[in-house]
TrEMBL record:
Keyword vocabulary terms for this entry: 2Fe-2S, Iron, Iron-sulfur, Metal-binding
Name of this chain's protein: Rieske domain-containing protein
Short name of any one Pfam family annotated for the protein: Rieske_4
Gene3D superfamilies linked: Rieske [2Fe-2S] iron-sulphur domain
Classification lineage: Eukaryota, Metazoa, Chordata, Craniata, Vertebrata
A molecular function GO annotation: 2 iron, 2 sulfur cluster binding
Annotated Rieske domain residues: 17-117
Source organism of the structure: Pagothenia borchgrevinki
UniProt xrefs under InterPro entries: Rieske_2Fe-2S, Rieske_2Fe-2S_sf, Sol_Rieske_ferrdox_dom
């Protein structure tokens, strides 16, 4: 494994590699919500599109819309997610929008059949109990 695992609390700049789960299971859905230990506004979407994983903040930078529920389209070779609330588009690789908005994106790596996301806080496919949020 590279630099860290899913159960470490990473407060270093850039974060730590967080184990999300096996590629085999995670590649069966186009988008999964990853809950962040900081709570609702820090959750992350894990997208699987055209054989690649991408991760970005789950709430739209415009008004907080749920990007995991957005449509994913390819235009001129660029994969984009569209917010279901106001149709803002975000490049899955860079987080840039056709507007001045920007979504935070996170590095994703595959190692030993597992998906890892580089993030400063714990991530989980299940909600954190209220007493474990930090």
């Amino acid at each position: 494994m590279a630099s860290g695992s899913g159960d470490e609390e990473g407060n270093t700049e850039g974060g730590s590699w967080r184990l999300i789960g096996p590629v085999e299971g995670l590649s069966k859905k186009r988008c999964r919500l990853m809950y962040c230990s900081l709570g609702f506004n820090s959750d992350v979407c894990l997208f699987y599109v055209k054989g690649e994983f991408f991760a970005m903040d789950a709430r739209c930078a415009h008004s907080g819309g749920p990007l995991c529920e957005g449509d994913i389209e390819e235009a001129d070779g660029v994969l984009q997610v569209f917010c279901p609330w106001h149709d803002y588009d975000f490049n899955l690789r860079t987080g840039k929008s056709g507007t001045s908005l920007q979504q935070q994106v996170y590095e994703v790596k595959l190692e030993d059949g597992n998906v890892y996301v580089k993030h400063a806080n714990r991530l989980s496919l299940e909600p954190f109990p209220a007493d474990q949020k930090s």
